[in-house]
């Protein structure tokens, strides 16, 4: 509770340990810059109201949000979101992260846990076939949160960023990174919303690259030539044993991207066209969020209840209220 304004807020309390306090100072700097550049909170990044020191503990107060898109998925037995829900969430995420990119920031840790619903109230229906209750979130308005790893263009760039499953190939290969690594993460997130499971379920670099090759085709030779991680390659190709237990796991659990499509309806193909553009190996060829927001997937309503994401959303960017 905010005793001055009477509103409920979320309070993030930092351990009284210098390394955590320094990380909090960096996050506060980013959040204050976001507030300066977006005073009306139109760009869907979480709003920090204030921060203060309480007996050595740094405390940050935020607008109070609801469940993360990951927690809702988990509590719903990993039942995927509908295509129209994916569309609305995707548009908002692209809009929020484009705002960061326009201001020379890279989030670096985009994942379903860091996309929060404004309100996660839901309706319940009973699936007779599967003998289970299924939840449908009433509103797909979201906010992007957790700017603890966000990096300005001019700042030092850590070698490794992003949570493993959402990590771009240029990060794994230590080729340097910038805003396109966020776009890769968004592609992985949209896949997960659509299917209910992680695209790259691994904890190992070599296996991660093998999964990418199985799903997206070979790593470009230019990236192989440039990387200092030559231990993953042999004679210009990924050094990977298809017949090992790990090789069998990848073969059985991964398939070319388009084979994951659940319907032949045009909107499903449009979504995968967008995901494919976000999962382009070469960062310089990867779709930008400015272009992504004009993608056909966002251009037309699918049914009478679906608000067209294109022009009407752009006319009122605060689509979260």
Automatic annotation (TrEMBL):
Keyword Cell membrane in record: no
SMART domains per the UniProt record, alphabetical: S_TKc
A GO-annotated cellular component: nucleus
Sequence segments annotated as region (Disordered): 301-321
Residue span(s) of domain Protein kinase: 1-298
Entry EC no(s): 2.7.12.1
Family: Belongs to the protein kinase superfamily. CMGC Ser/Thr protein kinase family. Lammer subfamily.
Protein name: dual-specificity kinase
Gene name as annotated: clk2a
